[in-house]
Write a structure and sequence with these properties.
Chains A, C: This is Phenylacetate-CoA oxygenase subunit PaaI. Chains A, C: One of its GO terms (biological process) is phenylacetate catabolic process. The complex is a heterotetramer, with two copies of chain A (253 residues) and two copies of chain B (312 residues). Chain A is 64% helix and 0% strand. Chain A has helices spanning 3-26, 35-63, 69-74, 94-115, 121-149, 153-166, 178-185, 196-209, 232-241, 243-247. By secondary structure, chain A is mainly α. Chain A is built from ten helices and no strands. Chain B is built from 13 helices and two strands, in the order ααααααααααββααα. Chain B has helices spanning 3-13, 26-45, 47-54, 60-85, 91-99, 116-137, 143-171, 175-194, 206-211, 219-237, 262-272, 276-289, 291-311, and strands at residues 247-249, 254-256. In chain B, strand 1 (247-249) and strand 2 form a beta hairpin. Chain B is globular. The chains are: A mainly alpha (253), B mainly alpha (312). Chains C and D meet through helix 1, helix 2, helix 3, helix 5 and helix 6 of C and helix 3, helix 4, helix 7, helix 12 and helix 13 of D.
């Protein structure tokens, strides 16, 4: 694996995660429990899609085969996706969607903070733009997790269930591999394993305020970041997401 | 007319803005609540046909633009509910009336978006018609409504340009895209004309609404203006408006055109449009599925307030 | 419109309806309320897909442009589909799925009985094979509608709601147009309007036994059989159904 | 051993079939219920990974074949539940035990089907491994189980051929199809080997089960047989089995191969497979969503029976 190959993988991991999560969040459009949440969810999805344009744009540039962000987003099949599994699981109820958002935002904010100091200026620039947006996402999702965890008995139970369902997908964020090692060595991106402590502290603080217990299990589903094994859900997402590009190849929109 | 009514009308006639705390006739209040409420509901329900294509948008850029648009629409809903609230009705009451079918939303949203070209056509034709309705309402007599309209119109014209841009891409695109664009205008042309409502000649309420400056132009005036504006745009795109009778009338200085099928309009109003059931069900489910969230948020806010009081 | 053009449309109407309904029914796979129903639903879907092969195969033959049944099924976009709108509405609960099946089976059995005497032998042959299968479908769906209509209070209410939701899609089956007129004139297929009475009698009998009231409204959603206006649901069905053929054009499977 | 136990064992040893009304040891009954029940559950849960591709099957023919296959599997579930019921346990009880997690199903179904090639690989490898397990069970000592196995094996070998046929098409297809086929075998090879269970050396129960002819071969024997049969098939397809240690051992007359990761196996058994939660949730929801249907059918059957009695 050359450094540029690793960098390409790294960019896909970032861009595919924001793309797939953006897709999931956008599924809420017009169906949220309150109007303010409809607006907030659309805004989150919009930011994530904007970040996707940057990451996949850079991925295409690094790859050097003339693929742009749209081609990468709309013309790869599931096995070539490198998103965190967490981002592709179904929305479930609003509580699960917000818990997933919070667990992602917390990782995203910690990770982007390190990327600000990336030795690759292109990455530092993307991180700078994204981290402002993500700070706001995190504030919102954390507040909502707290309100719903510490709301009614029903909402507390739902948030407990959401956390139990989602927790096994957290570990993948911190499981480093050869790509991460290459990125760390080049000073481009941090070793993800080194971020777990900060993440746990952040998440623990919010969950405590939400009167939710942080699960102890460290069992982790893996296979999204390296493409080895996605969930069955991703393929269904792609049938929708890529429909027009697949059905009308070569058209411009 | 009572003394109060006369004073009120004089203020309206002098183009003064009526503010929520000012005295106003009961009917003025009721008519405004209905009109602003329906407009707000339309923004909310209007998210659904466009939301239908967010997950299938063809490029990242188009997806982002569509997300921003739908977000704007929810925002418009919010301004409008706030404007209605100044008249003494709550957003929840208005929502319950929407969900029970007591209040309506624009019947255009009971038509489906079947292809990506429909997203273009909705922006171009539907937002185009909406703007035609809304621009004069920036000068409406009720202050909060007028101010909401000013904000909304600014964003809507942006949306319309984006819609037209989608149509342009398709009309200049592949054969399939052209066909898609033409199919969209075929289906959406007459429903867009219906958005201005039936001819005012048949309406008893229009006169009073116009006197109160809740309504500025007649439906027929606005419809004509819309047709006059849209026909050259369609020509520029190379698309055909599905109306054999459409032609420029030199004498009138306007296009002659066919009336939409008003029977269909009233059918859709009655609940028999292609998507009435789906739209209302979607909103009802959003509301009932979201009850636990609203309850929890309220409960949490109360806990926080109580804790704050206890701490003080 | 030449006679063959009308015949092509006619075959699409038959084949697209069985294709789309087969798709909907197959969505139940592994999710039915009892094992016997899982088997029965898979069996119904299987029959419908088999009939689709025959109808769309004939459509391709009539069209004479070298398109086979698979190309017609997997490479047309929503607007070129000619299925009854009834077949594309979402499954809803099991009761709605079975009510839809019954309303379709009743039409299908009445219609196929006439097609047995079609002047076009190819059509009479398909009708002969299909009508045996459909007789069984109808028996099953009618029995189930009766059991659920006349079961518990809850099941009665659910079946009432299903009927109310689906009834506006019944009228389209009997709304003839130029294609139907051409088919009737050539002795190929009956004028659909002429079948309504027989249909109403059949459906009325079963609904009465199911203690359900036959709706009086004649309001009908239209646009599926002539492609003028499908529901928003069809496009979503196609993203799944056509995925592989769209994503891997030209591959054979 | 009691007299009854001795007689029972003698019948088993003489290859006589034990029938439901015959005397049998409590443990024989309990072990059979567990084994047949698990097998039935596997057929039912096994519908899900394949059902995942029915709506996306690439041709009408493939869709029909897959539907027929899934229908067969539900049928197998039915035979097996019936066989288990002869032992005095009801289908509903067995279902409740599945849904509560008390009873298991084959862990292979906790792996996802991610591409169409997986449908081929499931037929070829998973059904292949299942048949390897099931063929000897046609000679099992319990009559109803043996007869169910005879019917099932006939259909399964048909399924396996269909799976192999899918793989063949893909292995001889486009580059993307070949890659898909190889990716499927990469993911499903070791889980297929796990289907035979850990080495019997580690199992205490195997000896008794074999004496009772509930189990005919050891897990290791069957696994070896599966590998020996499958390797040439993979070679014929031009696909690579993801095992660097795989090679023909002239001396043994068998292939040497790597053991699967048994830690992963026990993890999946514990509920931590990629799809355990989704699979069980799907079945739980099918059961709870379907309650009103089952209740209604029962209520209707009672009404009909009562009406019949009244009429007589």
């Amino acid at each position: 694996m050359t450094r540029d190959e690793a960098l390409f993988e790294f960019c896909l991991r970032m861009g595919d995660s924001t793309l797939v999560l953006g897709h999931r969040v956008s599924e809420w459009c017009g169906h949220a429990p309150v109007l303010e949440e409809d607006i907030a969810l659309a805004n989150t999805a919009l930011d994530l899609i904007g970040q996707t344009q940057l990451w996949l744009g850079l991925a295409g540039e690094v790859e050097g085969k003339g693929r742009d962000a749209d081609q990468l987003a709309f013309l790869r099949d599931a096995w070539d996706f490198r998103n965190l599994l967490l981002t592709e699981v179904p929305n479930g109820d609003f509580g699960r969607t917000l818990m997933r958002q919070f667990l992602f935002d917390a990782w995203h904010s910690v990770y982007l903070a390190r990327l600000l100091k990336s030795s690759d200026k292109r990455i530092a620039d993307i991180a700078e733009k994204a981290s402002k947006e993500v700070a706001y996402h995190l504030e919102r999702s954390a507040d909502t997790v707290v309100a719903l965890g510490d709301g009614t008995e029903e909402s507390h139970q739902r948030m407990e269930a959401a956390l139990a369902y989602l927790w096994p997908y957290v570990g993948e964020m911190f499981a480093g591999d050869a790509v991460d090692a290459a990125m760390a060595e080049a000073g481009i991106a941090p070793d993800p394993a080194g971020l777990r402590e900060e993440y746990d502290a952040l998440v623990g603080r919010v969950l405590a305020e939400a009167t939710l217990e942080m699960p102890e299990s460290r069992f982790a589903h893996k296979g999204g970041r390296n493409g080895a094994m996605h969930t069955e859900h991703l393929g269904h997402i792609l049938t929708q997401m890529q429909w027009l590009q697949r059905a009308y190849p070569g058209a411009s929109w | 007319m009572t003394e109060e009514e006369r004073k009120f009308q004089a203020r309206v006639d002098a183009n003064e803005k009526i503010e929520p705390k000012d005295w106003m006739p009961d009917d003025y209040r009721a008519t405004l609540i209905r009109q602003i409420g329906q407009h707000a509901h339309s923004e909310i329900v209007g998210q659904l046909p466009e939301g239908n294509w967010i997950t299938r948008a063809p490029t990242l850029e188009r997806k982002a633009i569509l997300l921003a648009k739908v977000q704007d629409e929810a925002g418009h809903g919010l301004y409008l509910y706030c404007a209605a609230e100044t008249l003494g009705v709550s957003r929840d009451e208005l929502t319950e009336d929407l969900l029970s079918g007591k209040m309506k939303y624009s019947s255009i949203f009971n038509y489906p978006t079947l292809t990506w070209a429909d997203i273009g056509a909705v922006g171009w034709l539907v937002d185009g018609a909406a703007i035609m309705n809304q621009v004069p309402l920036q000068r409406t007599s009720f202050g909060p409504y007028s101010r909401a309209m000013i904000r909304i119109c600014k964003e809507e014209s942006f949306h319309q340009r984006q819609g037209y841009d989608i149509m342009m891409k398709m009309a200049r695109g592949t054969e399939a895209q052209k066909r898609m664009a033409q199919d969209a205008i075929n289906r959406l042309w007459y429903p867009s004309l219906m958005m201005f409502g039936p001819s005012d000649k048949e309406s008893v309420h229009s006169g009073q609404s116009m006197a109160w400056r809740i309504k500025i132009n007649t439906n027929d005036e606005l419809r004509q203006k819309f047709v006059d504006q849209t026909v050259p745009q369609a020509e520029y795109l190379g698309l055909t408006i599905p109306d054999e009778n459409l032609k420029w009338n030199e004498e009138r200085g306007h296009y002659d055109f066919s009336e939409p099928d008003w029977k269909e309009f009233f059918d859709v109003l009655k609940g028999n449009g292609p998507c009435n059931t789906d739209r209302l069900t979607a909103r009802q489910e959003a509301w009932s599925d979201g009850k636990w969230v609203r309850d929890a948020m309220l409960a949490h806010a109360r806990k926080k307030a109580a804790a704050k009081v206890a701490a003080e």
